[in-house]
Amino acid sequence: MLRKVMSTPLHVGAPNFGDMARFTERVAAIYDNRWLTNDGPFVREFEERIATIAGVKHCVAMCNATVALEILIRAAGIAGEVIVPAYTFVATAHALQWQQITPVFCDIEPDNHTINPSEIERLITPRTTAIIGVHIWGKSCNVAALKAIADRRNLLLMFDAAHAFGCSHGGRPIGGNGLAEVFSFHATKFLNAAEGGAVVTNDDELASKMRLMRNFGFSGYDNVIYIGTNGKMNELSAAMGLTSLESMERFLAVNKRNYEAYQTALTGLPGISLIDYDNSEQQNYQYVVLDVSPSCPLSRDQLVQVLHGENVLARRYFFPGVHKMEPYRSFYPNAGLLLPVTERVVEQVLVLPTGTTVSEEDISRIGQILGWAVSNSDRLCQELPKTIPPGCSMQLKEHAVDA
Ligand code: T4K
Predict the structure, then answer these.
(1) Which CATH code of 3.40.640.10, 3.60.15.10, 2.30.40.10, 3.40.50.2300 fits the domain covering 20-246?
(2) Please, which residues have CB within 8 angstroms of residue 117's CB and are 6 or more apart in sequence?
(3) How many CB atoms lie within 10 A of CB 194?
(4) Measured in angstroms, how far is the CA atom of residue 188 from the centroid of ligand 1?
(5) 314 CB near ligand 1 (under 6 Å)
(6) Fewer CB atoms inside 10 A, N or C side of the chain?
(7) Is the CB of 65 under 6 A from ligand 1?
(8) Which CATH number fits domain 248-383: 3.30.450.40, 3.90.1150.10, 3.40.190.10, 2.60.40.10?
(9) Is residue 286 within 6 Å of ligand 1 at its C-beta?
(10) What is the mean pLDDT of each run of 10 residues along the chain (403 residues)?
(11) Spatial separation of the C-alpha atoms in residues 163 and 241, rounded to whole Å
């Protein structure tokens, strides 16, 4: 009997926690200092540590990566149209649209899931000012090809590196590519500050402009010199981020161990493959991503239903593609015609839980659940809808399978 193999739910994105005693020491220091936000000592320390790890001159910490993207876009003077992949978290596009800049959706590379440089040129118009690549799953974009296009066409180039803290490209830490890169330190990320983000850059002028913009545009007391917003990271988040940083090696070791355990557990499942990482680069292995091809006897959505029924809360990131979310779906109803790879990938990707809450034993059970599902596919295909309706709740209703 397979039902409820997992007694407690396993979440994709369950946070990795650093040492609680170290965090509470820092909280005690915050109480002593009576300093909670506005460029406090922990934020400064966090920025220094991140800049060092990323190998860049400046880290400007923010309240989250979405606001960090918005501030970077504004500080860099971007306007008009910007080319972005359609296969990303919706924040990449929203950070543009929020400021009346048009995201133009580009297709992705079939294996790497990153923006396809050979699709970019035909999307460039006189209004195009920039390209934003996304290092999805921590897998780096083809930076050299993007840079060549950006240089040739006089466009700015920057990266949404929300997934890619601790990863490398060309043997160098992600952080120094293009004009700037943006990390997320959200709870679900490899390194978390509960909520948090940062722009990293080697550009002195851009960094000081972003520091002002994240603080309402204040340059000293009473002197506002730009339009700004409140994008500041607070001291509690920085304390959490610093504590997470102390455990970064452990998080990496666990994620790598889990990834390898999944490689073993998923061997031989028809039509199901684990996307691979380039082992010549540093990876954080924060995402365990399956490709469920049409040769699998169950659809991706049917597997999600089986897994949820067993308390394994797998996700369909980034379904249905940003171009099919509002307002983009209404603006560009035919965008999918230019995005065949994205349209295929959003139907096939399934993300499984990993991180410090997931053991090798859990992974072997997840392998057993998937093995059981494919060997009972005839019955399951009759009982489970092929697709999950939009807007369903996080944990799908228990499916009607009696093993
Ligand atoms: N660019 C890219 C490419 C991104 O992926 C993201 C964020 C951004 C930009 C923007 O970064 P931030 O502004 O967030 O810093 C989650 C995250 O909220 C989001 O940060 C992340 N990407 C995205 C990939 O995942 P949802 O809609 O999946 O969140 P939710 O609430 O469903 O949580 C995900 C899973 O994590 C659940 O299974 C539950 C688990 N969880 C979550 C939280 C918050 C926990 O176990 N504990 C927790 O505290 O978006």
Answers:
(1) 3.40.640.10
(2) 142, 145, 146, 148, 149
(3) 16
(4) 5
(5) no
(6) N
(7) yes
(8) 3.90.1150.10
(9) no
(10) 69 96 98 97 98 98 98 98 98 98 98 97 98 98 98 98 98 98 98 98 98 96 95 98 98 98 97 96 98 98 96 96 97 96 98 97 97 96 91 53 41
(11) 15
3-state percent breakdown (helix, strand, coil) of the chain, nearest 5: 40, 15, 45
Cα angle 279, 284, 287; round to 5:
100
What pTM value is reported for the model? 0.96
Find out whether the beta carbon of 66 lies less than 6 Å from any atom of ligand 1: yes
Give nearest CA residue, ligand 1 atom 25: 188
Give distance in angstroms: CA of 187 to centre of ligand 1.
7
Beta-strand relationship, 349-352 and 288-292: antiparallel
Q: Is the CB of 240 under 6 A from ligand 1?
A: no
Distance from the alpha carbon of residue 26 to the mean position of ligand 1, in angstroms:
25
Q: Is residue 162 lining ligand 1, measured as CB closer than 6 Å? A: yes
Parts of the chain belonging to CATH 3.40.640.10: 20-246
